[in-house]
What we know:
The protein is mainly β and 128 residues long. Helix content is 0%, strand content 45%.
Amino acid sequence: xxxxxxxxxDTSDETHETSVKKFDDxxxxxxxxxxxxxxxxxxxxxxxxxxxxxxxxxxxxxxxxVVNRSRRxxxxxxxxGFINHSETPNCYINTESEDRTLYSIRPIKAGEEITVYxxxxxYDGMTA
Length: 128
């Protein structure tokens, strides 16, 4: 969901209309219901299932693209900040669309850590 807002640009003394992504209770929560952050055996803190999840579960956006005067970059959401690497992951981050969304690739049991296979590409498809 997007909203058009008017912003004042101090450098040009003009008003510009900008489309921004609007988050509300229906579009954004820091963590999907049934997920929590806890100590990880993989590294530091990790993302864990508090309940069982089916394969194909959409857990939400892990990264959002930020564009402003000083930055054009992917920024992690709270969901994306605690996903650890595994050679045998139970999830993947879809990079085929404009969103970066976390999906389970197999059933996940309560207590299991949510993991992905880290790649050596940035989220815009360019080699990092």
